[in-house]
Amino acid sequence: MSELSTLLPILWGGFCTTLAIFGLTLLFSIPLGLLIAVLKMSNWRVVRYPVSFYISVMRGTPLLLQIVAIYFGSYYLSEYAGVDFSFDRFPAVIVAFSINYAAYFAEIFRGGIQSISKGQYEAAYMLGMTRTQTFFRIILPQVVKRVVPASANEVITLVKDTSLAQVIAVTELFALAKKQQAAYASIYPLFVAGVFYYVANLLLSVFFAYVERKLNYYK
Amino acid sequence: MENVNESAPILKVEHVKKSFGDLHVLKDISFDLKAGEVLSIIGPSGSGKSTLLRCLTQLETVDGGLVQVDGKDMVVPNDSAKGPAVKYAPAKMLREIRLSTGLVFQNFNLFPHLTVLQNLCLAPVRVLGDGRKEARAMGRFLLKRMGLEGKENAYPCELSGGQQQRVSIARALAMNPKILFFDEPTSALDPELTGEVLKIIKKLAEDKMTMVIVTHEMAFARDVADKVIFMDGGVIVEQGTPDHVFRESGNERLAQFLSRFTNT
Ligand SMILES: Nc1ncnc2c1ncn2[C@@H]1O[C@H](COP(=O)(O)OP(=O)(O)O)[C@@H](O)[C@H]1O
Ligand SMILES: [Mg+2]
User: What are the tens digits of pLDDT across the range B216-242?
Assistant: First the structure.
């Protein structure tokens, strides 16, 4: 059991990095996703087409590759341009995760927005509400309810995806567990890391079940 | 000399045309309505009744003709040879006109995430800038008038169709419109629930609310209306007093249409 008392603080440190990636990604990707969803429904092709392309690239290539591309890409581009705008490891991970998850959230939000009936817009219009008022007071609250289940899936996937950050040597939970595995010559550290992920997602599931129940005050 | 304000129509529609692509839905619609009058519009489905209401409430734009609401030009024919056939008023005026017209939808279109009282208060507070307190008081007063006391905190999904439609009438009335339009307000209701909605509309008519009502309830149309329009194929085939339209008109299409309702 003495193993555990030295292992836990180490893994806990990694878990905090994991949580930071998780939290910051949600913080940036959800508003960005909403913006992208709205842009993708634009009447203007010059807006719609690039946004569609962006979404298809984000969803059509591995996140792993995107992390590497942001990190090394920004580095090489800086060299080439002679101006340093390269990302450090951690910010590169946050940027890559945020723009990737924003694309997935955008598609979920767009589906939610488009599932609201035309009648809701017409009723608001007849009452003299502006487009902004209609969106934020009528449409968005209903969209939130509809997108919670699909978004919950993404959030739970994100917890597990954070382990991809190790590809550019960000020492999150999984990277540290692997290091300990080598040190202990046992899979025990990996098992403990697995418990961390599992418990985190268990708590998230409970949270989302609660939110869904809370939003069930109307049909 | 007549008082101009009293005799001027509150709604004036002249030669209104509307097409969807090649489909000419409204061909040449003209009528007018005075304040306090009730107009019933009847006609087979597909004859353009909803499209007409949607044009008058700005949910659709017309392709030709003139619409005047409460003395304000909403859309007028474009005199110049170039450009579109009609000229709409500036956005600000259109909004002002829109605020003076209310629409009750066939399928209510209540806001499902808001309580009954929130449905009624949202626009008065956010659009008209009424105080929260007075809006709530007005909302409660309207609910009482609709026979919906005690329902203010219910959500629309907890109400019957008839109750929902009465809430949506109250929501429109909360904006204090000059003209209230109804598009088949009872068509989405179970037959046993139509009565409660029609009764409310009848009460509004007694209170001299100016209304335009598209309906398939012939007895109701005859009782409540000062004026009836029979539409078919995008034109007004017959218009006049209820007596004229329902009894005296010799029009064949109208007679055929009406026979469908008496035979059942
Ligand atoms: N947005 C639209 N686009 C194309 N056709 C339409 C549209 N709205 C209505 N129509 C057509 O216009 C005709 C009249 O419809 P409508 O005004 O709904 O008639 P009513 O309300 O009398 O049943 C129908 O043939 C309908 O299919
Ligand atoms: Mg119709």
Answer: 999 999 999 999 999 999 999 999 999
- Evaluate if pTM is beyond 0.95: no
Q: Based on the structure, what is the number of domains in chain B?
A: 1
Number of domains in chain A: 1
Exposure of B3 in the CB half-sphere (CA atoms within 13 A): 2
Give residues (CB < 6 A) around ligand 1: B 20, 23, 25, 43, 45-51
Q: How far apart are alpha carbons A54 and A36 in whole angstroms?
A: 10
ipTM: 0.93
Does the residue B156 lie in any domain?
yes
Domain that holds residue B153: 112-176
Residue B184 lies in a domain: no
Ion ligand 2 neighbours, Cβ < 5 Å: B 50
Q: What is residue B180's three-state secondary structure?
A: strand
Query: Which CATH number is A87's domain given?
Result: 1.10.3720.10
The residue of A121, A126, A132 whose CB has the most chain B CBs within 10 angstroms, and thus the best one to mutate to test that interface, is A126
Is B164 among the domain residues? yes
In a domain, B48, yes or no: no
Query: Which atom of ligand 1 is nearest to B214's Cα?
Result: 21
Q: How many CA atoms lie within 13 A of B212 on its CB side?
A: 30
